[in-house]
Specification:
This protein is elongated. Helix content is 80%, strand content 0%. It starts with a helix and ends with a helix. By secondary structure, the protein is mainly α. Helix 1 runs antiparallel to helix 5.
Length: 115
């Protein structure tokens, strides 16, 4: 179980870093999404910081499980918030948020079973 936890944590952390870098670089696709959900473009860097923090917590959590558990719960809450923003703005681009929520929930379950 621990190997699966490591693999899922690393994959999720990589996705978060990739997403955060896109936000810091003001990737046109991500900025289009931010505009669609009415998120202020000058505040997007905060979202990148949150994603980087989640990635770091997931990786540190491989050595200290409470940190990993807190990080994955934070990631789940962050993407539930993202999903809510998309739905409130009637944006149908909810696939990535749902995929990450599911991946984070599976990672959390794996983390809990490998303590």
């Amino acid at each position: 179980m621990y190997i699966a936890t490591v693999v899922l944590s690393v994959i999720l952390a990589a996705l978060l870093v990739f997403s955060g870098i896109g936000k810091l670089r003001h990737d046109p696709k991500q900025m289009g999404v931010m505009k669609a959900i009415n998120f202020p473009e000058d505040q997007v860097w905060w979202l990148a910081i949150i994603e980087f923090t989640g990635a770091l917590g997931l990786l540190l959590g491989l050595w200290a499980w409470p940190i990993g558990l807190a990080a994955v719960i934070g990631v789940i809450m962050y993407f539930i918030g993202a999903l809510i923003f998309h739905l409130r703005a009637h944006d149908k681009n909810i696939g990535p948020a749902i995929v990450i929520i599911v991946l984070a929930v599976v990672t959390m379950v794996m983390r809990l079973t490998s303590i």
